[in-house]
Design brief:
elongated, Arc Repressor Mutant, subunit A, 2 domains
Length: 262
Amino acid sequence: MAKAYERIADEIRRAIRAGELMPGDKLPAETQLVADHRRSLPTIRDALRLLQEEGLIEKQHGRGNFVRKPRTKVLRTNERHQWEKDRAREPVEERLKTGSTEHDTGLHVGDLVFHASYDEGAAEGDIAEAFGVPEGTALLVRSYRTRYAAESAPFSLVTSHLVRDVVKANPDLLDAANEPWPGGTQSQLFTLGIELSRLDERVTARPPTPEEAEELELPPGTSVIDLRKTSYDTTGRVVELSDVILPGDRTEMHFTTPLERW
């Protein structure tokens, strides 16, 4: 048998799904819910906590509980990489028209707010091993955040690693002021004469760190998708390594695998 707080949560959930409570609507005050349902305040708060964990409502400090506005969904497929490669040699005017985030969300360039920052780093542990370089090798570490202008949280947290001695052949690639680079990383690598032959993506799900939960504005209990992307050139050399943290409540991963005929 459902507990009292679960039955209260069911009623509010039904009202949200039926459109009686719309995104952005404020729920009655907790004291009003106590009176309406004739239950204790702890029971009401348990019901609200359950709905918060489901991502249906959010509590705004000093204002109350509100129906959560659905966030823009992201559909990430493995076909995006060939799409990016096909664009790498297009004229800059064409590459400026759209990017990978637009590809994944259906939004337009003007809908997005983009931020990039560059830093110096040193290859250590699994990163040094992946690149096949000695520990301490200088890296260019790039951080990317892109969000929908109507929302406050980014679609993902991206950290990209490049070997600095490789990148410095084109000084423009060392300057974050040149971001967003039309065509993205594959176009940047193309300026160095580098063509990608394959990408390896390893995906795990895990609880977010407190910092990730805050920046991605995750509902309580929401997992993140932790993706490690390794890019190989046509000689088999690793030329870029990215860690991408994706929010589990708005990201769909779709993989299509062609099979050879017998």
